[in-house]
């Protein structure tokens, strides 16, 4: 089968031929229906040797939807033939975090994290999944729309669920309207926000943000601060979700924050923020840096998609085109999510 593999740090992945994996006890084999391309993959491939706790080579692709075509012994045959969304955090299922339903913070994940992040992922014709615990049934859904929900949508859902009780009447700012950000806007829309501002330097991303329910858009986070200050009910934002995470956006997030407000840093752009009392951040601030999402978050976002609350905007590519699609993502040319259909 074909697989897009990372073979050297700091280099683009290569499309190579590898054997189709054979499921052993407890494992299943999926025929990949669709796999999303995440900006995190660019951070991974750009890493110098030693930064990521992963051994090379491995197949990229951590947003995967497929159909179960084979199963090892001990797997309930009911899974065969089912379309599934893959929960890519391949947690241990036994540690305290897993027992509490916080699989994304599994204590055993000190090296490879899961699908396409240290273990072979879904940018291939087939994907081996180590346990049916990592599958969420998604019969009948369009695999292209579904794939982005397994990371972009799942991470956004994890963030929005963590803000439960903080959104009613709040002013929120979303920085970065790409794969994750455009889904976060949709997940925030049902909340009773006072005001939702989206920030993105790309004009088409700002147009998309307005269509998805943003009350205002700006090209840069500093302009969002100005826009909020000019409002009668000014005083900054109660919630800032930063899907970029560069030094520039994180500084702006701090400047935007209202007293008692929360900054959620999702983007891995290398920025930092000083968490110190009585300095730059307003009284009562909170800062969080969540990672991916739980299995329950995935079930929820898949259910929200089934009822039309959330719908990924996608651009579709073949596996041969995947390297070019990554280049397009890097250049900021993708609207919503790039999805590969092998
Ligand atoms: P993307 O490339 O699809 O979207 C990023 C968006 O940010 C683009 O629309 C871009 O125009 C915009 N942007 C760039 N610079 C900006 C700036 N200064 N101000 C405002 N907007 C700006 O990326 P993505 O796949 O959505 O991922 C976003 C980030 O989240 C990446 O850093 C990725 O690694 C990270 N990520 C984190 C998690 C997690 O669990 N914490 C999960 C997935 C992705
Ligand atoms: Zn665990």
Task: Give your account of this protein's structure.
Belongs to the zinc-containing alcohol dehydrogenase family. Keywords: Metal-binding, Oxidoreductase, Zinc. Residues 179-306 form the Alcohol dehydrogenase-like C-terminal domain. By secondary structure, the protein is α/β, with parallel strands linked by helices. The protein has 2 domains: 2-151 and 293-340, Alpha-Beta Complex (Quinone Oxidoreductase, Chain A, domain 1), CATH 3.90.180; 154-288, 3-Layer(aba) Sandwich (Rossmann fold). The protein has helices at 39-46, 96-99, 143-146, 152-162, 179-188, 203-211, 221-229, 247-256, 295-306, 322-330; strands at residues 2-6, 14-17, 28-37, 58-59, 63-71, 83-86, 114-115, 118-119, 126-129, 135-137, 171-175, 195-199, 216-218, 237-242, 257-265, 286-288, 314-317, 337-340. The strands form 4 sheets. Strands 3, 5, 6, 9, 10, 17 and 18 form a 7-stranded mixed sheet that branches. A 6-stranded parallel sheet has the order 13-12-11-14-15-16, sandwiched between helices. Helix 4 (152-162) crosses helix 5, helix 4 (152-162) packs across helix 9 and helix 7 (221-229) packs parallel to helix 8 (247-256).
